[in-house]
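During the no-cost extension, the postdoctoral fellow (Dr. R.K.) reprocessed legacy sequence entries with the updated structure-token encoder. One reprocessed record is reproduced below for audit purposes.
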Amino acid sequence: MKHLVTLLVLIALPARAVSVPGAGVVALLTHADSGRGLAKPELVRRMAHRTRARRRLLSQEHEHPVRAGVRADLGAGGGIVTNEYLVHLAVGTPPRPVALTLDTGSDLVWTQCAPCLDCFDQGLPLLDPAGSSTYAALPCGAPRCRALPFTSCGGRSGGNRSCAYVYHYGDKSLTVGQLATDRFTFGPGDNPDSLSTRRLTFGCGHFNKGVFQANETGIAGFGRGRWSLPSQLNVTSFSYCFTSMFESKSSLVTLGAPAELYSHAHSGEVRTTPLIKNPSQPSLYFLSLKGISVGSTRLPVPESRFRSTIIDSGASITTLPEDVYEAVKAEFVAQVGLPLRGVEGSALDLCFALPVTAFWRRPAVPALTLHLEGADWELPRANYVFKDYGARVMCVVLDAAPGEQTVIGNFQQQNTHVVYDLQNDLLSFAPARCDRLVASL
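Re-encoded structure tokens follow.
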């Protein structure tokens, strides 16, 4: 805590003017474990254990809730950033690369900065404000400084007092540093003709603790709040397309670009459902989920159990309230017809023992459909079924959590082009070959 107080008092740099154009931009998107050479069971184990950590922390926070108003996030106690898909950008002049977790459940855009009082290890060099000719600290009197829940005035430099921030996450992760503006460079590659720059406000984090990994440098908030990347760019839509976590392929995240630009990559029909606003959690993207079907059987679960449903890019596995999960599990057990089998060290609960014939004949698995208002989302088999031939199991990739909230995670969104129409409050989605988006530019 001593470091936090010291940081809030000492951070200060001169301020400069800010300009935020409203045109669209594009950035590369990769899975966090891409290129690590990990086997499929290990990739799923890492993802599932992160989800289990999230479930444990949420359970603890139902008993000891996080202070209200710190962050609008998952559930009553906030969420956990699981570091699944990374947006690749550059910051400063000259541009320095950063890799930020794409998180639709939060607003602040931030990256680790030098000097670091206490930071997590990262693969890329720390962003050094002193090395950028376009970096400018945000004055503590600026309206944007007062818009965050917890900010303070740092020390004086050249007569100006800078804006210092503390930003909490529901899993007790936090970032502390200086709010600043600088040039952000977007683009899918090194081709100068494909690059675009915007001046944005961001958190330059000097004290960062929690659930972070070496392949990220910070978080890109894509929520509804004024600090998020879509809000700062003043775009009316954004989209992403997550490649399979089992492939080392890149895709794109777009902000303001027309969705039709990528229709050639779609492999199925585009469906649309309303995006709903919730005043109690204004940053999140709520959906009207009406029910769930396993095969041709619609579960006898009242719509009221799905009243609090969000779509979240920062959560990995789709999570259901415990009673809803048990109903889904029971229906899969009834229809699959294989014995249940636990796997030591796995966080996945719904696993079946594979017969010897599974090596040459794929076991029948019922369809899994989310019935949204105006659109049925029938998930591709690869987005909810995982086979581990070494352990001779087949698992349904879903999870349960205490509370009322249903979270549609990014594993279930793989190879799906998801478009957020912020102007009309609509979510569109279509099956797609996400890796083909990069080739389209």
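The first helix runs from residue 2 to 10. The chain has six helices and 27 strands. The remaining legacy entries will be reprocessed before the final report is submitted.
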